[in-house]
């Protein structure tokens, strides 16, 4: 499914809305009929992606071949609140074992990173990337006055606005800052059922679909293709009219997606991926990176990290899938010569409580580690180890690094202006080389 913006409020895109609503609001039935078109042909037969892409001004989209730089960002969202303490483990701290008599990972099983911190054993495939200095672990990341609601905390992370003053996402705001010459229909793509708030922009519109199979299915319908191509034909009698904008924008959208479909079809992965949500998401991201030079932002989300009960087995499975998928993804990037141009950022809406609960799980917490992976990453551990002796008033880990400083670093990577997106006060971190 694909997103589109509300006609009266650019910046409220929803993947699940029908395209017909949009077209009916944008152009009256009379205007379509005058142009020899029908609402059925344009609005209801067309999939939502066409409405989303073709809405943008045709002239702007035609110029979509200049970008700030050739860097790519892949965002991997761990939805539900990943347990940071059992991900990057303070295995020499007695307080860790005291707080988690059942859930603590035994020191003998920890994959050591240094004399104090190590990885969950399921993350062993990440150790070679860490040793290559391609993996950076940013510790104790969060924001002031942490919120423990999934919805609200995710909203804060995705808007980069703990005060709740904006309805737009941090990446959507970045896309809005780009000049018209930098815009194109597939600059950002989300592999999700619904468009993440992070990609909502006031002007920017981002397509989202559950898988690349959806793209193939929606663009290869011969009857629909003939209809849309007919509708996209120029008609000098209506140049400058709303209908001519529809035609030009439709043509642009069709061309962009046709090119993407053809390139994607010929992709062969250069690494072995498993068959799980992490692997499928990152393989599809690699497929786009390999085949779509205009795409700069890719968004993947995997659920399941809300481990209130029976955490050990669930967390082991999720981290194992995560580590194997990330390892395959990086091998794929290296084989295609894109590792130096790609940055993977991994986050979750919050960590878990320091102390385990009575259901052999952990409850909603606060600060947690973030991961950055790429050929230009300043690998290693960044920030101090978790301080289990000085917890906050809720007995949670204290935030040491504001997540907006990580975002500022990422925005610089994309060639953007962090202050224009995040406001003042969030200096980038030294997480990237060059």
Question: Any descriptors?
Answer:
single chain; 434 residues; alpha/beta; Alkaline Phosphatase, subunit A; three-stranded antiparallel beta sheet; 16 helices; 11 strands
Could you describe the 3D structure shown?
With 434 residues, the protein is of the alpha/beta class. 37% of the residues lie in helices and 11% in strands. It has helices at residues 19-26, 29-34, 39-44, 48-55, 58-62, 94-99, 127-131, 150-159, 170-177, 212-219, 222-231, 242-265, 277-291, 311-335, 403-413, 418-422; strands spanning 72-78, 88-89, 111-112, 118-119, 135-142, 188-191, 297-302, 342-348, 368-373, 380-382, 401-402. The strands form two sheets. Strands 1, 5, 6, 7, 8, 9, 10 and 11 form an eight-stranded mixed beta sheet that branches. The chain has a three-stranded antiparallel beta sheet with strand order 2-4-3, with no helix packed on it. A hairpin with a 5-residue loop joins strand 3 and strand 4. The chain is globular.
């Amino acid at each position: 499914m694909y997103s589109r913006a509300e006609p009266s409020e650019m910046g409220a895109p929803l993947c699940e809305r029908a395209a017909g609503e949009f077209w009916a609001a944008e152009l009256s039935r009379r205007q379509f009929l005058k142009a020899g078109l029908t609402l059925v042909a344009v609005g209801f037969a067309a999939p939502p992606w066409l409405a989303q892409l073709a809405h943008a001004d045709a002239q702007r989209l035609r110029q979509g071949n200049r970008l700030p730089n050739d860097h790519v960002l892949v965002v991997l969202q761990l939805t539900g609140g990943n347990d940071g303490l059992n991900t990057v483990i303070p295995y020499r701290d007695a307080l860790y074992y005291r707080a988690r008599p059942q859930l603590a990972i035994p020191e003998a099983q920890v994959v050591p990173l240094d004399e104090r911190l190590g990885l969950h054993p399921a993350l062993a495939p990440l150790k070679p990337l860490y040793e290559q200095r391609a993996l950076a672990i940013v510790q104790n990341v969060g924001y002031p006055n942490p919120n423990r609601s999934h919805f609200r905390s995710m909203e804060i992370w995705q808007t980069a606005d703990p005060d709740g003053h904006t309805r737009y996402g941090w990446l959507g705001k970045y896309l809005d800052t780009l000049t018209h010459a930098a815009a194109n229909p597939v600059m950002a793509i989300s592999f999700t059922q619904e468009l993440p708030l992070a990609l909502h922009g006031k002007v920017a519109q981002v397509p989202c679909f559950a898988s690349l199979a959806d793209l193939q299915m929606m663009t290869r319908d011969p009857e629909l293709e003939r209809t849309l191509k007919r509708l996209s034909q120029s008609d000098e009698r209506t140049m400058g009219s709303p209908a001519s904008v529809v035609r030009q924008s439709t043509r642009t959208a069709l061309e962009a997606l046709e090119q993407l479909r053809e390139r994607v079809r010929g992709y062969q992965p250069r690494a072995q991926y498993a068959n799980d949500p992490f692997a499928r998401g990152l393989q599809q991201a690699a497929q786009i990176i390999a085949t779509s030079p205009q795409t700069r932002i890719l968004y993947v989300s995997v659920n399941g990290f809300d481990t209130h009960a029976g955490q050990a087995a669930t967390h082991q499975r999720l981290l194992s899938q995560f580590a194997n998928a990330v390892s395959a993804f990086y091998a794929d990037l290296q084989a295609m010569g894109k590792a130096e141009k790609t940055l993977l950022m991994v986050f979750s809406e919050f960590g878990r409580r320091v102390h385990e609960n009575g259901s052999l799980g952990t409850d909603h917490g606060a600060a947690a580690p973030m991961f950055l992976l790429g050929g230009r990453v300043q690998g290693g551990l960044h920030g101090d180890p978790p301080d289990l002796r000085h917890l906050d008033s809720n007995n949670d880990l204290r935030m040491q690094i504001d997540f907006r400083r990580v975002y500022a670093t990422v925005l610089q990577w994309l060639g953007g202006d962090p202050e224009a997106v995040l406001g003042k006060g969030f200096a980038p971190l030294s997480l990237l080389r060059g």
